[in-house]
Amino acid sequence: MSNPRVVVIHGFTASPSAHWFPWLKQTLGAEGVEVDVVELPSPSEPVPAEWIAAARGAIGTPDEKTVVVGHSIGCFTVVRALDETPGDWRLGGLVLVGGFGAPLEGGNPLLVPFFDAQPDLGALARRTAHRTMIYSDSDEVIPAAASLELAAALDAETVEVPGAGHFTAAAGITELPVAAEAIRAALRG
What's the CATH fold of domain 5-188? Predict the structure, then answer.
């Protein structure tokens, strides 16, 4: 069995040094967990195939000691990447933060191509031991209903964080203890 590891996939216009990602890497790293916050190509002009390939490369073959974390469009990037990963694997945990599973009315047209293919969410849920969707009642980018819809399709636990906006540094979110706890729970099995 491999060592515990976490792969974090950021969202649109973000980077590994944005938002709560450095805090998560430092916090879990101090606990002996390997944390890879993936730098995705062209974060301001994302190409779904490139993002999915980068996520697949970082995730490799999932196992019970792997937790994959996505933020915003990074959530659906993760879902697509896992759906396209061959083999008979099991994933320890999937933690989605401010995620959504369909184009949003009035949303950024650059993100619409991410939804050109619809993964088998039921199969992903069956292969993933722990699934958590973290959302906020004040998310100005992704409506809570969109996060809850994806969570339901994945049969994921839902955790509301009041007043957290879209979980960005601009919203004052540079630490996200609820995500760290969801990851720890998944790693405990």
Answer: Rossmann fold (3.40.50)
